[in-house]
């Protein structure tokens, strides 16, 4: 796995037509926590190549809107985290492809969520969450439109299933919990098999042992992180969303052990992007 210290800026995609404050707040705070730069990006789709319609006015209007939004967002970021070096970029290109390309050198990509339905997310040209989450080379954080506030002791949730990307998510979650001085709840959801030669107690115990063994090394590396183990029974999406109801974020690997080789985003990630109320952090395997 590539160390998270090998990458540079925290990159946040700014959407001129939506509320960008929550995503930018997360990105600015994260850059401050990690002592990294902050890069604000607006991507303007290229002009349509057509002989019948002059698309220049639309393109120019989008460029103006992007420039004005970046100016306001940059000032807002400076006010929130004055010590963070923040820069802004207006880029010609399709937003999803642009941000995926930037992820090669980014420490993290942060996006706001439009809360589209499953159908709308594939039909909307402005939908970034699924394609960027699926192809990014660094962790992707998807932040909702409403501030997540809780009176509970701050904690993160990380999903553990033994897969390679799950191990990467666990490493990221421990590092984040240490930086934020918060607790970490490691959750391995157990789905009882329909048919098995082993008893339910035996299988449940095996799941708990896997969780304990997987987290042991990281717990030693980060002794100040208060770690708890949980093995709920049921749907992974529902169990993780429930555990993260008041969390600072829920952290998962991009593709779990239940997927197949051609999948870009696992079903758990996809479900959490629609179900979870807190920010969702998706970590690639390497």
Explain what the structure shows.
With 286 residues, the protein is an alpha/beta fold. Helix content is 41%, strand content 17%. The protein contains 9 helices and 10 strands. The chain has helices at residues 21-34, 56-80, 95-102, 118-123, 129-135, 164-180, 200-221, 236-243, 267-275; strands spanning 10-13, 38-44, 86-92, 108-112, 140-143, 155-159, 183-187, 227-230, 249-253, 280-283. A 10-stranded mixed beta sheet has the order 3-2-1-4-5-10-9-6-7-8, sandwiched between helices. Helix 1 packs across helix 2, helix 6 (164-180) packs across helix 7 (200-221) and helix 8 (236-243) crosses helix 9 (267-275). The longest helix has 25 residues, at 56-80. The N and C termini lie close together (4 Å).
Tell me briefly what this model is.
By secondary structure, the chain is α/β, with parallel strands linked by helices. It contains 9 helices and 10 strands. It has a 10-stranded mixed sheet with strand order 3-2-1-4-5-10-9-6-7-8, sandwiched between helices.
Describe the strand arrangement of the main beta sheet, using strand numbers: 3-2-1-4-5-10-9-6-7-8
Gross morphology is globular
Please describe the biggest sheet, giving its number of strands, its sense, and whether it closes into a barrel. Answer: 10 strands, mixed
Class by SSE composition: alpha/beta
How many strand units?
Answer: 10
Total count of helical runs of at least 4 residues? 9
Averaged pLDDT: 84
N/C terminus separation: 4 Å
Radius of gyration: 20 Å
pLDDT under 50 segments (min length 5)?
1-6, 118-126, 256-263
Helix content: 40-55%
H/E series? EHEHEHEHHEEHEHEHEHE
Strand content: 15-25%
């Amino acid at each position: 796995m590539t160390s998270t210290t090998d990458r540079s800026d925290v990159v946040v995609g700014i959407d001129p037509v939506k509320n960008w404050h929550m995503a930018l707040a997360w990105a600015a705070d994260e850059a401050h926590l990690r002592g990294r730069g902050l890069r604000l990006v607006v991507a303007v789709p290229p002009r349509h190549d057509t002989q019948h319609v002059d698309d220049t006015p639309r393109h120019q209007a989008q460029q103006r809107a992007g420039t004005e939004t970046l100016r306001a967002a940059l000032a807002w970021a400076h006010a929130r985290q004055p010590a963070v070096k923040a820069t802004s970029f207006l880029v010609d290109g399709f937003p999803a492809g642009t941000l995926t390309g930037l992820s090669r050198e980014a420490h993290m990509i942060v996006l706001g969520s439009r809360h589209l339905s499953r159908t709308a997310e594939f039909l909307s040209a402005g939908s970034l969450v699924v394609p960027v989450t699926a192809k990014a080379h660094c962790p992707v954080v998807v932040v909702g439109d409403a501030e997540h506030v809780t009176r509970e002791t701050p904690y993160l949730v990380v999903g553990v299933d033994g897969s390679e990307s799950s191990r990467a998510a666990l490493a990221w979650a421990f590092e984040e919990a240490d930086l934020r001085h918060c607790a970490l709840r490691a959750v391995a959801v157990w789905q009882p098999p329909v048919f098995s030669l082993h008893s339910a107690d035996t299988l449940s115990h095996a799941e708990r042992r896997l969780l304990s063994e997987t987290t042991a090394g990281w717990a030693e590396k980060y002794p100040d992180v208060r770690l708890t183990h949980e093995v709920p029974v049921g749907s992974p999406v529902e169990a993780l969303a429930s555990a993260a109801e008041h969390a600072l974020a829920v952290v998962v690997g991009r593709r779990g052990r239940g997927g197949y080789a051609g999948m870009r985003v696992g079903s758990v990630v996809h479900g959490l992007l629609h179900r979870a109320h807190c920010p969702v952090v998706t970590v690639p395997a390497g």
